[in-house]
Amino acid sequence: EVVRDLYRSDTQPEHCYSERQLYESALDRMAREIAAVRGCTETEAIQEIEKMLAKGPRRGARTEAEAEEADGDNQEEAA
Prior knowledge:
Blueprint: H1 2-6, H2 17-38, H3 42-55, H4 64-78
Helix pairs in contact: 2-3
């Protein structure tokens, strides 16, 4: 959960120092576990984790459904 919640894509603002440290620590621990289970290097595990996180919902630009919902809310407020 920590890795997922603190992940930031290239288009999102950077963390404060303490959040970045927490993210790096959790990512490192998770990568070591995945590397041990899959028999790959920690670097490969980190790349795989970050690839999965980038595919996840709510990363980068808003989804089309979120944009439509926000537009609908704005129109209702204007009325």
